[in-house]
Every structure is written in structure tokens, then in C-alpha cells.
Amino acid sequence: MPGSRRNTWLVQVAGALAVSAIALWLTFRRVSMADFMQIIRAADLQELVPYLALFVLIQLFRALRWRLLLDPVAKLGFARVNEANAVGLMVMTILPLRIGEIARPMLIATPPRLTTARALPSVVIEHVVDAAATALLLLIALLFLPGHFRMKVAMKATGIAALLVSVLVLSWLLVFHGRGMGIASWAGKAAGGLKPAWARPAEHWVGSWAEAIQLPGSIASRVLLGLVTFGYWTCAAWSLQVLGGAVGLRITLPMACMVTGAINLGAVVPAGPGMAGTLQVSTILALSLVTLETSMGTRIAAFANLLWASQLVLQVAWGLLFLPSISVRQRLASLILNLFGRNGKEP
Fold first, then answer.
1. What's the predicted TM-score (pTM) here?
2. Nearby residues of 177 by Cβ (< 8 Å), 6 or more positions away
3. How confident is the model at residue 61 (pLDDT cuts 50, 70, 90)?
């Protein structure tokens, strides 16, 4: 890694860690540490058993959805996708700045049939689908939350805006499905008009992405994609309710939808490993907006930190479970070299 590139990366990491530090300070600023530790020590660990079961379901739903999104460019077995998904999400959790986002496409790549560049658009579509789900979660929560809910208008506007953008992007994917070569040809001519040497690279690059950025072709696959996404986010909201019970915090379904949406929005902010600090702040902010009891502040902070720690530990443990796979280990080594060592070639 060249010196300037390494220095830029170190500055970005330092900034992300600073964001996490500030967010954690905000999390504990008005919290009694004695009360906080008492709540944590008194937590009902039996609630972690159903939470663990829901976590596994969430991982399987996410792997199945990714497999559906990869179908237009490569037909892969579920076991292979599940391995790459588990280890990739572990890498993304451990590394700051979410730079591990590239991990899953690199781990699933099997050139020449499936390169990292052709696998990457599936992750982009996944985020678009999740943005639509986040918007729906916020809007559903707003329908059922009490009238005293603060910032209701602002959150409603945010949800509607996110939903509209997501629907527009998904509509574009549906309209241009199967038209990759036409789009690539147009892009090549436009680039060639500026400089002839740019025509072929532009056509190749746009063609690869236009072919890869698409929803599953069949109606049945698209319906299954919607059902899997629904199952994924239903389990995510349900898991918050279960974990809340561990610290004596009653979280209704609308509140769980609100927290899930807030965490997704908070993920946009660059931070340390596992969204350290930003996840807690997002959770506390969401619950504080719908809870009038100020005495619940310490319990909410305990829940937020238990949620972060649980997700971090379980995501790493889930990734380690599939790490013994030889193919995954080889691709992970290549990924590490590309991120932190020499400039590697396409895995």
C-alpha cells in the first residue's frame, strides 16, 4: 500500500474511531454507571436463547436473499453463499468504516464466471431493498406510535423520502432488466464522443454493471425475494423485543420497527467496529423519542449496549463457524492482502 494511500486510510480510521468515542460519550453522559451495571448484572440470560435462535434465522434469511440477488449473474448453491455471507459479515463487523462491505463480493468471487466486480452490484441492490424496508418500518411505526411522539413529522418525511427514492431505484431495475447491452452501447458511444479511447472501456464497464445490477428475472423469484426480506426484517424487529425483555424493557412492535429503522439510518455514519457508539445512540434516540418516562434512560442505555455487544459477539462467532472452509480461508487471505498489503489482482 503506497504511503499516501496508507496515511489517508489511517486518517479515515482515526476519524471513525473518534465518531465512535463521541457517540459512546453521549451514550453514557447522563447515565448512572452504578444503576447501569446493576441492570446488566440482573439481566435475564434465558432471554438470550430465543434471541440466538432469531439471530440464526436472520443470518439464513440474509444468505438466501443474497443468493437470490446473485442469481442473474451466477447460479450458486446456498451452502457456498452462506459461507461467504457469514465470513464477509464478520469482516465487515470487525473492521471500521464498513470497509468490509467489499468482503462478501470478494469471498464469493470465482473468476472468470463470477468476478468481484460482477458480484458487487448484488450488495448495492441489497442496500436499496433494505432502504425501502427501513422506510416502511419507520412509516409503520409512525402509524401505531402514540400521538405524543416527538419529531413525528420529521420522521414521517424521512420515511417517505427514503421510500420514494428506493421505489424509483427498484423501478429502474425492473424497467431496464435485460437491456444491459443497449445501455452499454449507448455509454460507449457517449464516452467515445469525448475521447475515442474511452469508448471500449466505458462499454465494458457499464455493460458489466448493467448486466449485474438487476433483480431476479422470474416473478416467482421476485416474490420470494420480497418474502425473504419480510422474514428477515420481521425477525430483526422481533429480536429487539426479546432482548429488551432481558433487561426488563418492554418494547412494542411499533417501537421495535422504530429502533430498527433508526439503526439502519445510523449505519450511514462512519464509525468503529460493529457501529460502536452509533448503534447505541441510534437505539437510545429512537426509544427516547417514544418513551415519556425519563427514569427509563439508564435501562434504555443498558439495552442499547447489550444489543451492540450481542450483535458483535454473535456475528463474529457465526463467521468463525464457517471459517474452516478451505476456499473461504484462501479468499479471506486474498482479501486481507488487498485491503492492508500489496495491491492484489482480481480475486
1. 0.81
2. 214, 215, 217
3. very high
Cβ pair 70, 130 in contact under 8 A? no
Cell numbers standing for residue 15: 476519524
221 close to 119: Cβ distance less than 8 angstroms: no
Does residue 295 have a pLDDT over 70?
A: no
**Which is nearest to 32 in space by CA: 295, 303, 304?**
295
| 44-48, 75-79, 243-247: least confidently modelled range | 44-48
pLDDT tens, residue by residue, 81-104: 999 999 999 988 888 877 778 889
Cell digits of residue 221: 423469484
CA angle 95, 100, 106 (to 5 degrees): 145
Instruction: Quote the cell numbers at residue 92.
Output: 465487515
Name 310's Cβ contacts closer than 8 Å, sequence gap at least 6: 48, 51, 55, 243
* DSSP annotation of 1: -
How much is the pLDDT for 220? 87
Do residues 72 and 212 touch, judged by C-beta distance below 8 A? yes
Task: Enumerate the H helices of the chain as residue ranges.
Answer: 3-28, 33-41, 48-70, 78-94, 103-108, 116-144, 152-175, 180-194, 199-212, 219-246, 253-266, 278-290, 297-322, 326-340
Question: What is the number of other CB atoms lying within 10 angstroms of the CB of residue 276?
Answer: 20
Share of the chain above pLDDT 70, in %: 77
Q: Which three cell numbers stand for residue 344?
A: 492484489
Rounded Cα–Cα distance for residues 198 and 194 (Å): 8
